[in-house]
């Protein structure tokens, strides 16, 4: 019977999730945005990533800080942010943040590099009507 083992694994995953949530909260409170962005992306939490982006933009020199943080993300993290911002861009409340992130990606990524992103074609097709 493997029920007990599966329950322990599920409990361990839940505890790990709670610890990551607490760490994310602490990072936001400490204004350590790059780590917060990375953690929110790894947790696959588009809304949390949006909240981090909004927090960065509220800071003095927010646009510059946003650029610094987005540029330092790994390629897979940038791909995830691109996928998230496609959804954010469809909502008028979040479109400004989506456009700020998109501007940073377009400004700092070479066109050849952008073409290597997974899902870039569908992302562009989805962004065009709202941009």
UniProtKB/TrEMBL annotation:
Protein's name according to its UniProt entry: TBL3 protein
Principal subcellular localisation of the protein: nucleus
One Pfam entry name: Utp13
Keywords noted in UniProt: Nucleus, Repeat, WD repeat
GO molecular function: U3 snoRNA binding
Residue intervals of the U3 small nucleolar RNA-associated protein 13 C-terminal domain: 21-131
GO cellular component: 90S preribosome; small-subunit processome
Organism, as annotated: Erythrocercus mccallii
Entry-linked InterPro entries: Utp13_C (IPR013934)
